[in-house]
């Protein structure tokens, strides 16, 4: 049987390997023999395979000046790939960026790319030096500064991150946008969105690596963003699904939506769904893509009189549609006081952050934050990873592919 497989042409082997159900299965198959490794490592095959398979959840990133990567732990199926990625990227230390390494702050990651920035000599918390890099292949590009004629429209922007004016304070929301050519890995081009909330207006710019230019985006009217203009606007956790980005606008029951297919902003009133629920944290609401084109919205009802945490699942096809309630799930009772939000979603799984149990509160050695997976279909819980710290605030779910299946993204 093995001799027969070795006699197959590379094209036939590629067609067979493309039918493997996951990147993990491809990694196992690649270890069988040299012909399998040769076919599975070819850029042409990898582009086809990546277009058919979603990336794996490999761990969580904690931006703290220099990003700290915490890989998925056994028995999670992504643990071997996560360990290989940690070794290949030196734990996402970004030491290949212009020094000093700790001056760079992780802002976003998508499609194998990472977006970082650092404060300029002038001390601005809005205008920073921006780098897009690939830590696996140790490549990076520095973006040109936003032109003066565009920057002049930014006046006294409100802080979106931090508040002490230190090196990690930022008055801008900057992130990577989805790119149509990235799904198959055929084009290393990328796009970046830069936003700032100022008094009386929201300012947004768009950068394309193809044109290597910044251009302005038309924002929504400011009055739609906040009920109290004097307080400014602060955006919550950024969510993404099917080419749209979503932010809860602090102190409101409104969504700010950026549709990157049309490069248009919209403000959507979601108060009918959130009415009667206390929304203290922006990570009480997140989005998930379904294979049939629907956007799934998960709302966590945490601050209840019965001390329970309940998840409500809604769906819509376009963000202006009325949400349809799909299901309601009660999380375990002991999670009521430990639940700290949903950090992300991937392929039908939610990734939930839990603080350490109450009985460990006085023992700093035992204090930790645990991240669990929650299978939406089977409602099964699984341990994903753990961080030995009682003060973890901002985290990102990291999804990607094993190093052997990755292509340069910059």
From TrEMBL:
InterPro entries found in the cross-reference section: F-box-like_dom_sf (IPR036047), F-box_dom (IPR001810)
Pfam families linked:
F-box-like (PF12937)
Gene3D superfamilies documented for this protein = 1.20.1280.50
The record places domain F-box at 10-49
The name on file for this protein is: F-box domain-containing protein
User: Which species expresses this protein natively?
Assistant: Leersia perrieri
Q: What is the lineage of its organism?
A: Eukaryota, Viridiplantae, Streptophyta, Embryophyta, Tracheophyta
